[in-house]
Every structure is written in structure tokens, then in C-alpha cells.
Design a protein that fits this description.
By secondary structure, this protein is α/β, with parallel strands linked by helices. It is about 40% helix and about 20% strand. The protein is built from twelve helices and 13 strands. The strands form two sheets. It has an eight-stranded mixed β-sheet, sandwiched between helices. It has a five-stranded mixed β-sheet with strand order 3-7-6-2-4.
Length: about 325
């Protein structure tokens, strides 16, 4: 097997995040479920965007955020995602290239514009996401470059891709290409509502070996196995996949493998401003460590470091080099 060119390849929705502060009353008035992610069409996207007021706009998307985190650790990252041939699409592409991320998916010419996610942050740091997929949902199998997939030690797929048939086919092709090259495939469950929609299919991907590594938080895990008992869900997860990381907020994370379950505590976080991207950045740290052959506990610690940084400010991507924070914590990179 040849040495991989990339540590991590992320495949997902290329979305520009529009982030604004909101109070609980605004969510109630707009009939939004706090902490959820919903898909919206063009008219609703424009209506809600007009109500948001002052906002921060930054390139995002779950897998895009993860690859940005890998790059911030000094890792070699690549991304496959669909943007339109428009101004926001060019902004997204320029952002990725500025971070040193390999991104050369051909843009969509004509048709839907580049995707955007309107993220409302309540005072407790929780985020409520309203996503217009636009061009992102048109990712298709021809966009999956087998050479790029085969050059990545781990391919990371976001569960949100499963919402659209073309993207679902692209997802499966990427998994086949990765395994054909002797590489690993990882999946983030993304959102408990996403799990509710596609539970059986996600379990199928785990059980048939299409996916090697699972990322989930507690609510996603409970939704996956339809149980409120954490230990029951963890035991089922251990049977169904080769490796998993389940984040538990202030309680740390459970690293699950056939060899056992390891609890990795979370370092103290001074402040929580915005939890947008916390799971994405946890995956970035974990996968960077895994790609570099670090022990699972160290991978988990790197995940906590990355997540801790991103929740300390508004926006889903690091504001300081994560490699510096890792070294400060005594991890040799």
C-alpha cells in the first residue's frame, strides 16, 4: 500500500454559514426546535435570512469544518463538495485553499446557488440550524474522484449527505473506492433527526462494513438504538462497528472498540459561546491523531482540544492554530 497523500478526506455539503445571535422568544415565534437542524427551501431561506439581522458569514458545512480542523493541526486535508459557479462558491473555494485544503470539485454551472446554513445562537451557546442545500445537494458519483479518495488515509462522510439520492450514491461510491485502496471510512451521524430518518440505513452501513468508524453524541446514539439507556446503546454500538467515539459534553467521550470502552475526560473549558462545529472539530482532532498513528486516548484528547477551542467563540472553525494548543497540552506533533 502506498503512503497516503492526505491524512483525512472530508466529503459533505459545501455550505456558507450565516450565524446570528437570537433569544428563546425568537425561536418560539418562528416555531423552531432549539438545537435541531432542518432543511428549508428557497422561499423559507430568504424569509428567515431577512429576519436574522446582524450576522457573521463564514464557510462551513460539517465535513468542511472537519477538514479545516485537520489542517489547523498541521494535517494534510482534502475535501469533496459541490458549490455553484457564483460569488459564494468562489468565497468557499478560496477559504479552503487558503487553509491549505485540497479542493477541486468542479462547480455547478447554472441552476441552484451555493448552499447556506442560517444558524441561530441562543445565550446558552446552543445552535439551531436552518439549512438551504442549494448546489450542495447535487453532489453526485462523478464528483467522487477515486484517486483523491484512495490517497486519503481516512475518508470522513457526514450523515447529512444521506438526505439526497444523488449524494447517497456518491457516499457509497466513496466508501467502495476507499476500501478498494485499503483505506478507512468514517461517518458522523450528524443529528438525531437525521438518525431518525435513516436509522436502518445507517445501521446497515455499519453492519455490512461500509463504514469503519462512527462519530456520535449521546442524543444521536440514543436515537440510533431507540433506547434511553446509555449502557445498552454503547453495548450495541460495540457489536455493530469497529471503532466509535461518542461525545458526552462535560463528561468527556467514550471511545468504543472491540477491545473495550475507554473514557477520555474533557479538559475544562473557560467559556462556551457557540457550540456550532463542536462535533465536527472533535472528529478533526480524533481523525488527525488516528491518521498519525496515535493511541486512541490521545486521539480523543485531540478531539476535546479542537472542540474546546471552537466553542469558545462564534463560528465553526478554529481561530487559533490547533497544533499550538496540542503542543501546549504536551502532545508531540
Amino acid at each position: 500500500m502506498t503512503e497516503p497523500k492526505f491524512d483525512v478526506l472530508g466529503i459533505g455539503n459545501a455550505i456558507v454559514d450565516v450565524i446570528a445571535q437570537a433569544d428563546e422568544a425568537f425561536l418560539v415565534a418562528q416555531k423552531l426546535v432549539k438545537g435541531s437542524m432542518r432543511l428549508v427551501e428557497t422561499d423559507e431561506s430568504e424569509r428567515l435570512y431577512g429576519l436574522m439581522g446582524t450576522s457573521v458569514q463564514t464557510s462551513g458545512g460539517s465535513a468542511g469544518n472537519t477538514t479545516a480542523g485537520v489542517a489547523s493541526f498541521g494535517g494534510r486535508a482534502a475535501f469533496i463538495g459541490k458549490v455553484a459557479d457564483d460569488a459564494l462558491g468562489e468565497v468557499y473555494r478560496a477559504d479552503m485553499h487558503r487553509l491549505g485544503i485540497h479542493f477541486d470539485t468542479p462547480p455547478l454551472a447554472g441552476g441552484d446557488p451555493t448552499a447556506r446554513s442560517m444558524i441561530l445562537i441562543t445565550p446558552d451557546g446552543e445552535r439551531t440550524m436552518n439549512t438551504y442545500l442549494g448546489a450542495a445537494q447535487l453532489l453526485s458519483p462523478p464528483d467522487i474522484d477515486a484517486e483523491t479518495v484512495g490517497a486519503a488515509r481516512v475518508t470522513y462522510l457526514e450523515g447529512y449527505l444521506w438526505d439526497r439520492p444523488l449524494a447517497k450514491d456518491a457516499f457509497r461510491k466513496a466508501a467502495r473506492d476507499a476500501h478498494a485502496a485499503g483505506r478507512q471510512v468514517s461517518l458522523t451521524l450528524s443529528d438525531s433527526f437525521c438518525v431518525d430518518r435513516f436509522r436502518d440505513e445507517f445501521l446497515g452501513l455499519m453492519r455490512d462494513g461500509s463504514v469503519d468508524i462512527i462519530f456520535a453524541n449521546v442524543s444521536e446514539l440514543h436515537a440510533l438504538y431507540q433506547t434511553a439507556d446509555f449502557d445498552t446503546a454503547i453495548a450495541a454500538l460495540q457489536r455493530d462497528c469497529r471503532l466509535a467515539a461518542v461525545t458526552r459534553g462535560g463528561e468527556g467521550a467514550s471511545i468504543v472498540s472491540p477491545a473495550g470502552i475507554e473514557i477520555v475526560p474533557v479538559p475544562e473549558v473557560e467559556r462556551i459561546i457557540d457550540t456550532t462545529g463542536a462535533g465536527d472539530l472533535y472528529a478533526a482532532g480524533f481523525l488527525f491523531g488516528l491518521a498519525r498513528g496515535m493511541p486512541l486516548a490521545t486521539c480523543g484528547t485531540l478531539g476535546h482540544i479542537a472542540a474546546g477551542e471552537v466553542i469558545s467563540h462564534i463560528g465553526p472553525r478554529p481561530h487559533v492554530p490547533l497544533v499550538d494548543l496540542a503542543r501546549k497540552a504536551g502532545i508531540a506533533i
